[in-house]
Structures are given as structure tokens and as C-alpha cells.
């Protein structure tokens, strides 16, 4: 019995923006870490999808097909910026005197140091909040959580040390994570 032609071979470009733009943007932003570039790549993906719609065979979903186009766009972007053949290296002065005197190749100059400092501060603040939340756990929960997730002890070693079963350990870990999530939601994410 022959398989009937299914409408899955049909693309609906009129629905792409409403159905897939957010998903594609989130996919791109994680890989390029630039808001405007991610938006441009999604637009290029839609444009390329329109141009190659006749090649869509329906072997995947519309979204999967668009993701594969976006992946190629991201790869092309990185190839382009990494293959600036024939360009002279532009050197920039970094320090002009003392032991630190020297130049940077322009494309390797550190970017947005302020942003990095902010990220480190925020990361330290989050780390401190996590420590505070762990301190609010019942003593046994805190001990098991630290041993397993922070100190990375083996399950077997923790069970021997604390005289508990592996299933008991995982119950404690689960309860500790639940309480930590609640504490972080109340004290970090909602501030």
C-alpha cells in the first residue's frame, strides 16, 4: 500500500515568525552572544528558508529544518570572522611604559572589561547567596549536598561515611535541591 503524500511536505512561511522566531533567536543568542547578530541570523535563516523552500522534503519538521539552516548561518558567520585572510594585523598600544609596555593585536584586545567585572561581582554575590541558602538547610542535608555536589565525593563513600543507603542519599539530595531552589527564588531571583 503506497503512502499518501502528507501535508508535512508543505511549508507555511506566513507562520514562521509567530511560531519559530523566539526559538530560533534563543538558539542563536546562546551561540553568538550578541543580540543584534542573533536577530540578523534569524532573519537570514528565514530568507534562506524562503529561497530554498522547494528543497524541503518533509523528512523533518519545519522547525528542525529552519534550525539546520540557522546552524549553517552560525557556522558561516564564524568561518567569516576567523578567516580574514590577507588582513594586516593592527596593533594597539596597551601600556606605554614600564614592565607592562606592549601592544595588542586589535582583534585580541580585551573587550568590555567593565562587563566582565560586573559578571564576576554578580557571580560572587550568587555564590554567597547559595552558601547562605545551604547554611539554612538541615545539617544532614547541607552535609550530604556539599559532599556530593560541591566536593564531588562518590556516592559509595558518602553512604559509608554517613551510614546511609544510596536511595536515602538521593532523597536527601532531592530535598536539599528543592529547598535550595525555594531559598534562591525568594532571596536572589525575586530581588
From TrEMBL:
<comment type="similarity">
    <text>Belongs to the sigma-70 factor family. ECF subfamily.</text>
</comment>
<dbReference type="InterPro" id="IPR013324">
    <property type="entry name" value="RNA_pol_sigma_r3/r4-like"/>
</dbReference>
<keyword id="KW-0731">Sigma factor</keyword>
<keyword id="KW-0804">Transcription</keyword>
<dbReference type="InterPro" id="IPR039425">
    <property type="entry name" value="RNA_pol_sigma-70-like"/>
</dbReference>
<feature type="domain" description="RNA polymerase sigma factor 70 region 4 type 2">
    <location>
        <begin position="128"/>
        <end position="180"/>
    </location>
</feature>
<dbReference type="Pfam" id="PF08281">
    <property type="entry name" value="Sigma70_r4_2"/>
</dbReference>
<dbReference type="InterPro" id="IPR007627">
    <property type="entry name" value="RNA_pol_sigma70_r2"/>
</dbReference>
<dbReference type="InterPro" id="IPR036388">
    <property type="entry name" value="WH-like_DNA-bd_sf"/>
</dbReference>
<dbReference type="InterPro" id="IPR013325">
    <property type="entry name" value="RNA_pol_sigma_r2"/>
</dbReference>
<dbReference type="InterPro" id="IPR014289">
    <property type="entry name" value="RNA_pol_sigma-24-rel"/>
</dbReference>
<dbReference type="InterPro" id="IPR014284">
    <property type="entry name" value="RNA_pol_sigma-70_dom"/>
</dbReference>
<dbReference type="InterPro" id="IPR013249">
    <property type="entry name" value="RNA_pol_sigma70_r4_t2"/>
</dbReference>
<keyword id="KW-0805">Transcription regulation</keyword>
<dbReference type="Pfam" id="PF04542">
    <property type="entry name" value="Sigma70_r2"/>
</dbReference>
<protein>
    <submittedName>
        <fullName>Sigma-70 family RNA polymerase sigma factor</fullName>
    </submittedName>
</protein>
<feature type="domain" description="RNA polymerase sigma-70 region 2">
    <location>
        <begin position="17"/>
        <end position="80"/>
    </location>
</feature>
<keyword id="KW-0238">DNA-binding</keyword>
Amino acid at each position: 500500500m503506497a503512502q499518501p503524500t502528507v501535508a508535512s511536505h508543505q511549508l507555511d512561511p506566513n507562520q514562521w515568525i509567530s511560531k519559530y522566531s523566539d526559538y530560533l533567536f534563543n538558539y542563536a543568542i546562546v551561540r553568538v552572544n550578541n543580540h543584534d547578530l542573533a536577530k540578523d541570523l534569524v532573519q537570514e535563516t528565514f530568507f534562506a528558508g524562503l529561497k530554498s523552500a522547494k528543497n524541503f522534503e518533509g523528512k523533518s519538521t519545519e522547525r528542525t529544518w529552519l534550525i539546520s539552516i540557522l546552524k549553517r548561518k552560525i557556522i558561516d558567520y564564524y568561518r567569516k570572522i576567523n578567516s580574514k585572510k590577507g588582513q594586516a594585523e593592527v596593533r594597539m598600544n596597551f601600556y606605554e611604559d614600564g614592565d607592562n609596555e606592549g601592544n595588542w593585536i586589535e582583534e585580541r584586545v580585551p573587550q568590555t572589561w567593565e562587563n566582565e567585572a560586573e559578571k564576576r561581582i554578580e557571580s560572587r554575590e550568587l555564590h554567597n547567596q547559595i552558601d547562605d541558602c545551604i547554611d539554612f538547610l538541615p545539617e544532614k542535608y547541607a552535609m550530604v549536598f556539599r559532599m556530593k555536589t560541591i566536593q564531588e565525593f562518590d556516592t559509595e563513600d558518602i553512604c559509608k561515611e554517613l551510614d546511609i543507603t544510596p536511595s536515602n542519599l538521593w532523597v536527601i539530595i532531592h530535598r536539599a535541591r528543592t529547598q535550595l531552589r525555594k531559598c534562591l527564588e525568594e532571596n536572589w531571583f525575586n530581588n
